[in-house]
Specification:
Helix content: 40-55%
Strand order of the largest sheet: 1-2-7-6
CATH topology of one domain: Immunoglobulin-like
Order of helices and strands: EEEEEEEH
Radius of gyration: 38 Å
Oligomer: single chain
CATH architecture of one domain: Sandwich
Distance between the termini: 123 Å
Number of helices: 1
Number of strands: 7
Mean pLDDT: 92
Length: 173
């Protein structure tokens, strides 16, 4: 059964800061999960689950571990003092809704990342095709130039041979 760790919190009009002593746990072993009205900090054997009094911007939440203490900065969505950290009321339903919103938000972010990756791949493919087209045209231009020079050389040779033949015919007369 997880143990609830001791924690402290402070607030300003724009953010809430929750601090938890790590009690020998490594920062890499700490799991922090933040939703708009819920914060969970987990490191064995401790679990801190807080239903927050107000809403926070879970995308902008930042956690840092210094001096054996984990500090989680939670920017408030609506500025103002809460006066208390946790919610009094039906936290179960509120938490479930918060987790559902977080899941939908994560899915939207995954879709955006997937769409961005696909768009980046398409852009890279178009750039590669453009480069290949430029190279192909350069090769075709070189071939055309070579063909043109070969034709000019051939016609010059024919003209020279015709002139030599005409000279031989004139010399025989």
């Amino acid at each position: 059964m997880p143990i609830t760790p001791k924690y402290t919190w402070s607030e300003s009009a724009s953010e809430v800061v929750v601090s938890v002593p790590l009690r020998g746990a490594k920062a890499a072993d700490v799991d922090v999960f933040a939703a708009d009205v819920f914060l969970k900090i987990n490191f064995k054997p401790y679990l801190l689950a807080l239903d927050l009094h107000g809403e926070v911007d879970d995308i902008q939440c930042r956690a840092s571990a210094t001096g054996g203490t984990l500090s989680v900065r939670l920017p408030k969505t609506t500025h103002g003092k809460w006066g208390r950290l946790t919610f009094d009321g039906d936290a179960k339903g509120r938490r479930a809704e918060s987790l559902k919103r977080k899941q939908e938000q994560e899915e939207q972010l995954r879709e955006k990342r997937r769409d961005r990756r696909i768009q980046d791949e398409r852009t890279a493919l178009r750039q590669m095709m453009s480069i290949e087209e430029t190279e192909r045209r350069a090769i075709e231009d070189l071939k055309e130039d070579e063909k043109q020079r070969a034709e000019e050389d051939m016609y010059a040779t024919f003209e020279r041979l015709r002139a030599e033949k005409a000279k031989v015919v004139v010399d025989r007369k």
